[in-house]
Amino acid sequence: MVENKNWWKNEVVYQIYPKSFKDTNNDGIGDIKGITDKLPYLSDLGVTMLWICPIFTSPMVDNGYDIANFEGINPEFGSMSDFDELLEKADNLGIKIILDLVINHTSDEHPWFKAALADKNSKYRDYYIFKKGTERPNNWRSIFGGSVWEKVPGEDTYYLHVFDKRQPDLNWENEAVRKELYAMINRWLEKGIAGFRIDSITFIKKDQDYSSLPADGADGLVSCKFKTRNRPGIEVFLKELRHETFDRFNCVTIGEAPGVEYKDFSQFIGKDGYFSMIFDFHYADIDVESGSDWFKRTNWTAQEFKELLAASQQALQQAGWGANFIENHDQPRALSKLVAPGFQTPASAKGIGAMYFFLRGTPFIYQGQELGMINAVRESISEFDDISSIDNYYRSMNEGFSEKEALNFVNLRSRDNTRTPMPWNNTKYGGFSTVEPWLGMTEEYPAINAESNEVVDWYKAMIALRQSSDISACLSKGDIYFMENVSDNIIGYWREWEGQRIYSLTNLSTAKEIVNLDQDIQTVFLDSHNELNAGKKIELLPYQSILFN
Ligand code: GLC
């Protein structure tokens, strides 16, 4: 691997949800061989690194974020030799691979947890968070709904799970646990993967008082985030994690960091920060008041989005480096979230793509985003797979909403929206599989798929501009500045590097917008709608984005 310590600043990352990418053994579930088969597509697109969501042994309660063996491959996805083959073939194409590191919790089927349950005197009891008592120790609500405490059968004891009850939290206070995790991480890095995306890492430290807080919902519970997310003392664990593992390799680490305030960014991504970069969620959750309460929808405006985006970019720039995204496996499709109904066209998909792609940081593209995919509409809760969708549906009704409203909230926000199988072509099941896939396809796949798709061509063009053009240095290394003298609906910024300036303007609204520039446009590098009358005064159509100097 390149010896340049900051090599990861030059990557373009493509996120793969393996269960839905490509099925090669026709069981309706994607697999590792499917990723290998599609390497030519990914290479042609121009991406340089793949982040593969969990492929480890798992009962798949949370689609692999519940790991039963950190070093085994889930047979549904294939074998370790399939993975080795993928690693090698990707390397031949100059594509690096990063894996998902889920170390806040395990599956309840992990041998450590099984041993902990089987014998209360086992050393593995202290690998998890068990509390004795006849009542739940406090009123914390788990991220997926219900109490964070689950009773141990036959004992007056509870164990803690921040996510699902089948995802017991590891006890990071126990040094033996930390050592086991570090050794496992190092073995993966020795194998030659380029690094990790690090799951839920801001949850590893819990307030040791385990005290209740005033309830914040009709269920009488309170979100556990106030006591378990980015809590004081976490810095000790994160420094040690970095020191014992990542620092020993020339690897990249991307922390999933909800709950980290801007003032703390430098601890996370500064010169001696815990990670190479982090995902910031401040603007990703613009459509809801909180990422786990989908019934609390907002009436957000483009102006608010712009302010959040600018604040996020400024904080990331001041502290270090960010991981930019508009979609992932926990979010709805960006086209459905950010673009008004009636305007969710390929041109708008290009527009919002360009809006974020040239921000300062490493761009992440989620599978299917480059096709201009939109949310699936499901008619009944039984059509959903995602545990948090099911939880949000019932919680919405518990909060007084009708069943129809609850279904609407879930359709808008469900994590299943981005988890539908990848449509490769317009044949039955979109060329994803020859049998009915594990989760319904989007209805639009015969029209929106990877074959002759103008949005795919647009993503190729964006990647080529960032990676291998005369303006690459500016687009990757340049500082970012947000324009202030533009309308509320226009997201405008420029990148600046060694005297060169590249401007990006996006109209995030359903109305035409006029922008008055200080000087005539010289070169238009990209125009999502191909309708630009270049000059000092330009008119941007709804969701049009241009990149120029
Ligand atoms: C992260 C993952 C999400 C998962 C959760 C628990 O937020 O992105 O998919 O459900 O952690 O591991």
TrEMBL record:
Similarity remark: Belongs to the glycosyl hydrolase 13 family.
Organism for this UniProt entry: Vagococcus vulneris
CDD domains assigned: AmyAc_SI_OligoGlu_DGase
Gene3D superfamilies with a match to the protein in the record: Glycosidases, Golgi alpha-mannosidase II, Oligo-1,6-glucosidase, Domain 2
Keywords: Glycosidase, Hydrolase
SUPFAM superfamilies in the record: (Trans)glycosidases (SSF51445), Glycosyl hydrolase domain (SSF51011)
One GO molecular-function entry: alpha-amylase activity
Protein name as catalogued: Glucohydrolase
This protein's record includes keyword Hydrolase: yes
GO BP terms, alphabetized: oligosaccharide catabolic process
Domain Glycosyl hydrolase family 13 catalytic: 15-419
Pfam families, alphabetized: Alpha-amylase
